[in-house]
Structure formats: structure tokens, C-alpha cells
Design brief:
Helices cover about 40% and strands about 20% of the residues. It has a six-stranded parallel beta sheet. It is elongated. It is α/β, with parallel strands linked by helices. It has helices at about 5-20, 25-30, 50-60, 90-120, 140-150, 165-175, 180-190, 205-210, 225-235, 250-255, 265-270; strands spanning about 35-40, 45, 65-70, 75, 80-90, 125-130, 160-165, 195-200, 215-220, 240-245, 260-265, 275-280. Helix 1 packs across helix 3 (about 50-60).
């Protein structure tokens, strides 16, 4: 969830990074009483995300600036659409411009890519989810952008759920621990609300995971045939998640195997920033 406190903290740090001792150009070249209005204009079509973040960049720079966001997070827009406007001190508008654009372009790019994945699996019953492959420090923003595009969020952090991946299983095996027994022991110590996910890369691992009581079985880099077999083996005993080898060309076929969730790291680690511009109108 994107909270005001998180927005203020992250955007404030970005503004401090960009102008640690003020905006030298604007304060030395521009008259203190100069005013301007700037429009956030889409250079290409997409899905919007980051309205609150965009506004915060200007509000934290100068509380007297007037910011009006014209679209909501998750709204589609076309090239040429005016998405937001800001007016007031020209110095302040130009000081916050780059930070506001950086966040909004990044978040809208993620939302737009996510929407493409969601559209590609329409009608299958599967859902698209993100992963922890986010930019350090920007997870809340990037996860919000995934939601703006119609995707779902996976566990937010290492503290939110048990998720045993290949390296965890390798350590267990090396230490001589039986996976099913280790899972049952872990579940006995965990709160009943804690979700347990186990990643497997072979069909013959599935039964032990189910025997241990995992709530979700993550089928990693499975072929389509093996995904279908895995779905049949698991049935209604656990949620079935697919991951690995997922792109816009493959996600539809993966969804049609019957999996419940498809997690896609590319939503956040490979999304292209959308082309948005801040066009200034001098008052």
C-alpha cells in the first residue's frame, strides 16, 4: 500500500539528492517573482500511475504551488493527453520538474507493461503478480504501479511469508533435512495466518511439498506440458504459481495450462520508462 508517509519520505530523499543546496540555475537566473504553468503531457499512449507522487514532488518543494492531476492511477491515456498541471513560482516548478517526471515516467511504464500482461491472459482465470525484483528503495512505488496496471502484488518483503526457493532447498538437502518434515515443523511454529510457498523445478518434488502442507507450489521454469501435469497433480490441494521464462509471447500459453498465478519479474526490473514531458507555459 502506498502511504503518504512513504511518498513523502522517498520523494523528499529524491529532491534532496537532486538539489542538496538548492537549484543553482533557477535561483540565479530566474526572477524570484516569475510564475509559470506546466502541463504533464503524454508523448505516447499508456496507463497512468504516480499521481500522488507527481504532486508530492511539487508540494514538498513549495507548498504554494497549485497541482492538479487530471487522471487517476490505472487510467488509460493517449499520446497528446494532458495528464496533470502545476502552476506557481517558476523557480519551484523547474526545481521539482525532473524528480516528478522520473517517478511518473517510471511508474507509468510499469503500469503500462503490466496492463499488457494482464490483457494477454484475459479469460484464463490466472492472475499476474510481481516479484521482489524491484529497485532498492522504490518497492512501494513500483508495486503500486503494478496494481495500477491491473496486476497483483506478491509478498512485499522477506518478513511477509515463508517462500522456500531452490537455494533454501539445497541447504536443507545438504543438512540432511527432509523437506516435508521441515515444512511441517515450520508450520507448527508459524502463526496460522502465515502463507507458505515452496518453489520446485521438477515434477517429482511436488508430492513432498504438498505432504509438508505448503499453501502454494511455485513451478519454476517448467515446460508447458510439465505445467499442465503439475496442475493436475496439485489439483485443489494448493495454489499453483508459475514463474520463469515468462514474457508477453509466452504468458498466454502459460496461463492456459490452468495455473492460478504467474509471477513476472520483468514487470519491475525491465519496464521501460514511458515518454512523458512537462511543457511549460510562461505566465
Amino acid at each position: 500500500m502506498l502511504t503518504t508517509a512513504t511518498v513523502n519520505r522517498v520523494v523528499g530523499a529524491a529532491l534532496e539528492e537532486d538539489a542538496p543546496w538548492g537549484d543553482l540555475t533557477s535561483t540565479t537566473l530566474l526572477p524570484a517573482d516569475a510564475t509559470a504553468t506546466a502541463d504533464l503531457v503524454a508523448r505516447e499512449a499508456g496507463v497512468f500511475s504516480g499521481g500522488e507522487v507527481f504532486a508530492a514532488a511539487f508540494r514538498l518543494t513549495d507548498t504554494a504551488l497549485d497541482v492538479d492531476v487530471h487522471v487517476g492511477d490505472g487510467d488509460d491515456f493517449a499520446a497528446g493527453d494532458v495528464l496533470a498541471s502545476v502552476s506557481g513560482s517558476a523557480r519551484s516548478v523547474l526545481t521539482a520538474e525532473r524528480v516528478a517526471l522520473n517517478f511518473t515516467q517510471r511508474m507509468s511504464g510499469i503500469a503500462t507493461l503490466t496492463a499488457a500482461y494482464v490483457a494477454a491472459i484475459d479469460g484464463t482465470g490466472a492472475r499476474i503478480a510481481d516479484t521482489r525484483k524491484t529497485t532498492p528503495g522504490l518497492r512501494a512505488f513500483e508495486r503500486h504501479a503494478v496494481e495500477s496496471g491491473g496486476g497483483r502484488n506478491h509478498r512485499y518483503s522477506l518478513s511477509d511469508a515463508v517462500m522456500a526457493k531452490d537455494n533454501h532447498l539445497a541447504v536443507l538437502k545438504r543438512s540432511g533435512r527432509d523437506l516435508a518434515t521441515a515444512l511441517r515443523e515450520a508450520l507448527s511454529r508459524l502463526p496460522h495466518t502465515t502463507h507458505v510457498v515452496v518453489e520446485v523445478d521438477r515434477l517429482d518434488q511436488i508430492e513432498a511439498v504438498l505432504d509438508g502442507g505448503a499453501h502454494t507450489v511455485l513451478l519454476d521454469n517448467f515446460s508447458l506440458d510439465d505445467l499442465r501435469e503439475g496442475v493436475a497433480l496439485i489439483g485443489d490441494r494448493a495454489t499453483v504459481e508459475a514463474s520463469g521464462g515468462v514474457n508477453l509471447d509466452t504468458v498466454g500459453d502459460i496461463a492456459r495450462t490452468g495455473v492460478d498465478v504467474i509471477s513476472v519479474g520483468a514487470l519491475t526490473h525491465s519496464a521501460r520508462a514511458l515518454d512523458l514531458g512537462l511543457d511549460l507555459r510562461i505566465d
